[in-house]
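TL;DR need structure tokens for one chain.
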Amino acid sequence: MNALQSADILRRSHLFEGRYENLYLNEKRIPQITRLRELACQHAAEVLGLKPEALTAGCWLNDMPPGSVTLTHCHDDDDELLSGVYYIDVPEHSGHLVLHHEGEQVSVTPEAGKFVFFSPAIPHEVTRNASTRHRLSLGFNFGPARI
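>> reply
TL;DR here they are.
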């Protein structure tokens, strides 16, 4: 993905230590995002045992500069059925996804081009980006399609 321009970003949220953790992209300017969202929805439907048209997917870009972390949080604010992440660019030592479930921690090593899906109720975090490059991923929440 090339460098983002201001017109590529529709809005930002979750300001933490001077960094917006969520960047909501203009899919008209970056059509690859639409294709990834559709692909993610197909995979999420398989995981949930539903048809893709039964789901809606929200997505955002996570741009983690060197030294950044994402604190522990959940995605169960609304009617989310599944959460996920797609790894775009993952430099070595750029942090792991850590899922916290029933007193256990599961560390997921990210790989560019891979999806990871998990329950939106599971607390999770991303450890420090100890690389010298930005780590890029797309976050997803999947909920029931609105009829």
